[in-house]
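Colleagues,

For the teaching module next term, I've prepared a clean inverse folding example: a structure given as tokens, and then the sequence designed for it. I'd like students to try predicting residues themselves before seeing the answer, so please don't circulate the second half yet.
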């Protein structure tokens, strides 16, 4: 059903605000520069941590890489929290000689100053202490059995009994010390492994490089008016309002409707292709962001919101939507691959500005985020390419020049195995801006948040005991301000009107689409 059949009112002015100070948030959002603690899909209740916990930091390359114990519950804390968080790492696979080669390459290309050799030495120490514990436990059980047999003998002497007791006490004390050492080393090992990045796909370029895979569309014959002066002159855009952030703007009339049409267009396309829609919160606890390697202590990465209970983090629609929802879930095999999307506002702290630099650079934007959970092995590669091809086909329907690129390591979070992006050419600047992207995180996130499915396809999730960690594909289906800026320039007519693309007309009132 088109929007024209739903809306039963005449033409009137619509204002959409794209600023940070919304009712209910004004005066609450602020940055904290101090360190602080931090379809049918199966869902599990998420228990809340009420304790403030210390934050650790490691220096990595030119960056400071923070990681929090919200992803790992220490032994001393396990009795005080509602549930225990412990990533399910496969250390034998992680530190296998073949995988170590890929890890070293990833650390080097991402320019992370992580001492992998030290972490591997720590793993060897943990194994040695565990072996010693097993030996002591075995010796303790053996001594206990020998003592029972000796006590059955009528000629058992008190001196030998004392020897058994002394030896048993010595073993218990050594086992206690070994257990304490094991817990200490294990905690250090888990916290150290949390700083390791995902391995990289062989096609991933280094640093800021991008590898162009495909190019679609052609350049415009004439240079259009820049979208900012065009929008202001035609009453589509309004900036420089005293009560809002100077880097933000208002949209009016056709521009506001076009923003809504783009969201409806992409939403309908995703639902037609089997994606399930989410309506998600805007604020999250640190565990959801740290699982995808967002540093919640860095004011350039995320906004912090102080509540009466604790600090929450304002991200809006992002990969945190799905990591928070699926955390500690076991998903039915029949439900995989499971495709989802969420529509809303995304808040990008890295783009906060004291002046309006254009729609592509605003820090608060309408956006659609997508997620796919799938089986391990080759299925994640298949889903990755299917999702990329789907988005490429959709954007090829618009009168824009675009390219598909493989993104370099500088723009990859440590959780990402690879990332491909669709970039649109903004005619007035002849620069490319990212409008959509897809990235494969393999089992990096699912191991941290325990997102699994039954290893035996014949078993139901509740019955299964052996489980496999799902692979996760994330991405952005549409960055609306980028697409809107490009359309405001490429769709200009000779009389400075705006020619709406045909694929969008069903989602606009007739007065605008005619």
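(Answer key — instructors only)
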């Amino acid at each position: 059903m088109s929007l024209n059949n739903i809306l039963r009112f005449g033409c009137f002015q619509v204002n959409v605000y794209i600023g940070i100070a919304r009712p209910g948030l004004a005066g609450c959002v602020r940055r904290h520069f101090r360190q602080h603690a931090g379809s049918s899909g199966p869902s599990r209740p998420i228990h809340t941590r009420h304790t403030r916990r210390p934050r650790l930091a490691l220096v990595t390359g030119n960056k400071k890489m923070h990681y929090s114990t919200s992803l790992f519950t220490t032994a001393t804390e396990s009795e005080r929290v509602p549930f225990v968080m412990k990533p399910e790492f496969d250390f034998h696979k992680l530190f296998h000689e073949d995988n170590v080669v890929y890890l070293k390459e990833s650390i080097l290309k991402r320019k992370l100053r992580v001492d992998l050799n030290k972490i591997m030495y720590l793993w060897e120490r943990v194994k040695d202490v565990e072996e010693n514990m097993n030996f002591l436990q075995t010796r303790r059980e053996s001594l206990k059995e020998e003592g029972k047999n000796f006590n059955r003998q009528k000629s058992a002497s008190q001196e030998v009994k004392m020897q058994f007791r002394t030896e048993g006490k010595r073993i218990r004390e050594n086992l206690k010390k070994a257990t304490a050492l094991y817990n200490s080393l294990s905690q250090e090992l888990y916290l150290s492994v949390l700083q390791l990045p995902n391995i990289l796909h062989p096609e991933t370029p280094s640093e800021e490089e991008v590898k162009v895979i495909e190019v679609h569309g052609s350049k415009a014959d004439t240079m259009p008016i820049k979208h900012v002066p065009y929008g202001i002159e035609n009453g589509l855009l309004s900036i420089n309002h005293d009560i809002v952030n100077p880097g933000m703007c208002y949209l009016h009339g056709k521009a506001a409707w076009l923003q809504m049409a783009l969201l409806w267009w992409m939403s309908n396309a995703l639902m037609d292709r089997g994606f399930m829609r989410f309506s998600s919160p805007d604020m999250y606890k640190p565990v959801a962001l740290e699982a995808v390697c967002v540093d919640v202590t860095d004011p350039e990465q995320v906004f912090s919101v102080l509540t009466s209970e604790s600090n929450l983090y304002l991200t809006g629609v992002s990969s945190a939507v799905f990591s928070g929802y699926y955390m500690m879930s076991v998903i039915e095999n029949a439900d995989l691959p499971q495709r989802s999307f969420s529509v809303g506002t995304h808040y990008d702290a890295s783009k906060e500005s004291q002046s309006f630099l254009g729609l592509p650079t605003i820090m608060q934007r309408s956006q659609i985020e997508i997620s796919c959970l799938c089986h391990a092995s080759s299925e994640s590669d298949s889903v990755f390419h299917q999702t990329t091809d789907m988005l490429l086909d959709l954007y090829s329907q618009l009168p824009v020049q675009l390219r598909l690129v493989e993104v370099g390591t500088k723009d990859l979070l440590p959780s990402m195995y690879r990332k491909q992006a669709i970039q649109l050419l903004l005619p007035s600047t002849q620069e490319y801006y990212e409008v959509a992207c897809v990235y494969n995180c393999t089992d990096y996130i699912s191991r941290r948040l325990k997102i699994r499915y039954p290893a035996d396809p014949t078993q139901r999730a509740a019955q299964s005991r052996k489980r496999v960690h799902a692979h996760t594909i994330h991405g952005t289906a549409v960055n609306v301000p980028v697409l809107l800026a490009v359309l405001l320039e490429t769709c200009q007519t000779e009389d400075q009107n705006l020619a709406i693309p045909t694929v969008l007309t069903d989602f606009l009132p007739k007065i605008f689409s005619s």
